[in-house]
Write a structure and sequence with these properties.
4-stranded parallel beta sheet, Cobalt-precorrin-4 Transmethylase, domain 1, alpha/beta, Rossmann fold, 268 residues, 3 domains, single chain, 10 helices
Length: 268
């Protein structure tokens, strides 16, 4: 639990930018989906914006861990921004894959949360991509010719497999790309094992963190009482009814937040 490789890279990139010189530092969207980390950087002068239009030309712009559409990156370059790329390497690999198959004439189907930054970024690397999030949405598609399907790096494997099985029945030429981050899969598997050995479980992470939300869903599916909390202040009083408590955390949750939750539980 705690920061994955991609999150460490993004936070490290932003840290380097803040410490480099006196230039203003911006991020296009939150650097990661964790309110404590975003708030800490804002207190140090980092500004979070949603559009290149909000970025002055003479500043450093850090691309978030989830990546951004290719068009936005080009807009930043035209404005003269000094770009530092904090995109997760796994997401960069997915972007390259989408661009490759789009250039080969494949229709692109992306599986994930359409409002998530990673999905919006991926969609910017293909022409007229289709974004779906469930087998039911896949059933409604009418597809022809070669199709490439790729999933959000933080989606659950069984969610992705169900969509792919539907698409296999609808497409004669289907290329399935395995893009789910192994750290995400291993974290979910470890959580299932943990839930077998505890009375209740707390999942720690930001409300907007997709992988934290899926960890919470995984814990709930095991049948034990569980809660999704952002920090120690949200520990539910009911947790005192249980003897053995399991802890897990999303890939963007700082170690300091996890430790604070552990210490609060030990003091109860």
């Amino acid at each position: 639990m705690g920061f994955c490789l991609g999150v460490r890279r993004a936070v490290g990139t932003l840290e380097d930018a803040v410490n480099f010189d006196d230039s203003e530092v911006y991020t296009l969207g939150p650097i990661i989906h964790n309110p404590q980390v975003v708030s800490d950087f804002e207190s140090r002068g980092v500004k979070t914006v949603e559009s290149p239009d909000d970025v002055p030309s003479d500043c450093r712009v850090i691309i978030r861990a989830h990546g951004i559409p290719l068009q936005l990156k080009e807009e930043l370059k035209l404005r003269g921004s000094r770009i530092m790329d904090g995109t997760c390497p796994k997401v960069i690999a997915s972007q390259k894959t989408v661009r490759k198959y789009a250039s080969l004439g494949y229709h692109t189907v992306i599986v994930g949360d359409p409002d998530h930054g990673e999905i919006r970024g991926l969609a910017g690397y293909a022409d007229h991509p289709i974004v779906i999030s469930s087998p039911e949405e896949a059933e409604k598609l009418t597809l022809s010719g070669p199709v490439m399907v790729i999933g959000q790096t933080t989606i659950k494997q069984d969610e992705y497999d169900k969509v792919c099985r539907v698409l296999e029945q609808k497409c004669e030429q289907l290329k399935i790309v395995e893009s789910i981050c192994s750290a995400t899969s291993k974290r979910q598997e470890a959580l299932v094992d943990l839930c077998k050995r505890v009375d209740a479980c707390l999942i720690i992470g930001g409300r907007d963190s997709a992988n934290t939300q899926r960890l919470y869903m995984t814990a709930r599916e095991t049948g034990i009482p569980c809660w999704h909390i952002q920090d120690a202040s949200e520990i539910p009083g009911k947790i005192g009814d249980f003897e053995v408590i399991g802890l897990s955390a999303g890939a963007s949750t700082p170690d300091s937040v996890i430790l604070a939750v552990e210490r609060r539980l030990q003091s109860m």
